[in-house]
Amino acid sequence: MSSPVHVRGSITIPVTELQWRFTRASGPGGQNVNKVSTAVELSFDLAASTAIPEPLKLRALERLSSRLIDGVVTIRAEEHRSQWRNRQAALARLADLMRAATGPLPKSRRPTKPSRGMNERRLDSKRRRSTTKQMRSRPDV
Question: 77, 75, 74: which is closest to 89 by C-alpha?
Answer without folding.
Answer: 77
